[in-house]
Design a protein that fits this description.
5-stranded antiparallel sheet; 14 helices; about 35% helix; elongated
């Protein structure tokens, strides 16, 4: 008999069926960090085409065959009279056997004291568009890291899933003055920085240049670079040039010490790499703007945006989240700062994706800022958009969500005998007094539900997370 965890994960992946036809799924190979290895390799080989979120690349994911355009029904009072729509705020449910059965299971669980006094809940059937269960679904609440769903959807729709972020080296004065220009790639590591040094040194050798000065340009971003949360191991200073996310120990993961000047450290590391390749760097790297008329020498680019979104969601990566929010601001011609990025994301969600943003207040891309407010129904609406055939470019919003009991921030939750281990994908959210869970789950009949559980004023994560997991487990009979 196969291991139950392997069986659960395989079942959930097959039923979700969001990106590839059945034959391709079979050939895709093993799972790695919540994604099929073949999908990762194919995505990493593709280059940006500069298109919008819905432009089709030759190898773009196929539409989800079971996902209908569902947003029309969410919260629609006209449809409610026909038994097709949302439950009312305060614990009501949609009509129909499925909705009543869901209410019977969820009603006692939402009263768990671990969820605080008044959690917000929205559960939507993505096959029909019906909101099967709702408890204050339109009330704006602190979302914590579940806001990364909004950041991901806005970035993908504004930039496209094949967009890549460059880090470049340009030269002036005949190649003797170099400027390292950060484009905002929060995934830049020492391996790619070494590749950039290889290409730069090769170009300089061709010019007969053996000594250079080095400056670094961080003008791609504006405003304060320190997150309002302050100095914190969960996020580096938000600058467009960093290597290994500004970690003092590049091998560290999760919350860890960060350097005080990520851009300066990246430039110093680049200078050392040039020295090892026979290029003398005179003096220390200094901040400076790219000189007018400077000639591009070398470039490295980030993984495709689709891959970055999946990594951000699976690991709840705050550095990538803030980078993607600013990339959205840049393409929408908003100021690439905390405030400008928040405006850009909200504008993209409301005007392009047309999800309900009334009452929403975005403060950052990561959810670390407690000033953010998001309604549960906004999150389920975004998940619904990501499942629609008309929006294949948004599919990484779903495929990047951690898998219950297997990957990312859900690796140690929904394990063992949990009925949704391997078939539930969800973004977690945790701040002091704030706990959240939002994602999708496959039902035994092969249907797909989207859900959002937001709890503010919780007594502790030890009380709130098990309560959220019980709610999630109860979504399937």
């Amino acid at each position: 008999m196969p291991d139950i965890r392997t069986w659960q994960l395989a079942t959930g992946a097959a039923a979700l069926g969001l990106a590839l036809a059945a034959g391709v799924v079979t050939a895709a190979g093993p799972w790695e960090s919540g994604q099929r290895t073949a999908e990762r390799n194919r995505a990493a080989a593709d280059r940006a085409d500069g298109g919008g979120g819905d432009r089709r690349h030759p190898d773009a994911p196929a539409p989800a065959p079971s996902a209908l355009p569902v947003l029309r029904a969410i919260g629609a009072s006209a449809a409610a009279g026909r038994g097709e729509a949302a439950g009312e705020a305060g614990g009501g449910t949609g009509t129909g056997t499925a909705a009543h059965e869901l209410a019977r299971r969820l009603d006692p669980l939402v009263r768990d004291p671990g969820l605080g006094k008044s959690p917000g809940v929205s559960v939507v059937d993505l096959g029909t568009g019906r909101e099967l269960y709702a408890r204050e679904p339109g009330r704006a609440m602190i979302p914590a890291s579940t806001v990364k769903i909004a950041t991901a959807a806005a970035a993908l729709s504004a930039l496209g899933p094949y967009h890549r972020i460059p880090t470049t080296v340009s030269a002036s004065s005949g190649g003797r003055k170099l400027t390292l220009v950060g484009g905002g790639d929060a995934t830049l590591d020492r391996k790619r920085l070494a590749t950039l040094a290889d290409r730069t040194a090769a170009d300089l050798r061709g010019r007969g240049v053996a000594q250079v000065t080095l400056a670094y340009d961080t003008s791609a971003y504006r405003g304060p670079d320190l997150h309002p949360i302050g100095v914190n191991g969960n996020i580096a200073r938000v600058v467009p040039l960093m290597v290994d996310q500004g970690r003092a120990d590049p091998r560290s993961t999760g919350s860890a010490d960060r350097v005080g000047d990520p851009a300066g450290e990246a430039a110093r590391a680049f200078g050392e790499l040039l020295e090892k390749r026979g290029v003398e760097v005179a003096g220390s790297p200094a901040p400076g703007r790219l000189a007018k008329g400077a000639e591009p020498l070398a470039e490295v680019v980030s993984p495709p945006l689709s891959d970055m979104v999946e990594r951000m969601l699976t690991r709840s990566d705050n550095d990538i989240a803030e980078s993607l929010a600013r990339q959205t601001a840049i393409v929408l011609r908003e100021e690439p700062s905390f405030k400008g990025a928040a405006r850009a994301v909200k504008r993209q969600l409301g005007t392009v994706l047309k999800v309900p943003v009334a009452g929403a207040r975005l403060a950052d891309g990561s959810g670390l800022d407690r000033g953010a407010r998001v309604a549960p129904r906004l999150l389920t609406s975004l998940l619904a958009r990501a499942a629609e055939p008309a929006h294949p470019g948004l599919r990484p919003v779903l495929t990047g969500l951690p898998v219950g009991g297997f990957t990312g921030t859900l690796e140690s939750r929904l394990t063992g005998a949990s009925p949704v281990g391997g078939v539930l994908r969800a973004k977690t959210g945790t701040l002091t007094g704030v706990n959240a869970l939002s994602g999708t789950v496959v039902t035994p009949s092969g249907g797909l539900l989207a859900f959002a559980f937001l709890a503010n004023g919780t007594p502790s994560p030890d009380a709130a997370q098990p309560a959220l997991d019980r709610l999630a487990a109860s979504l399937t009979p």
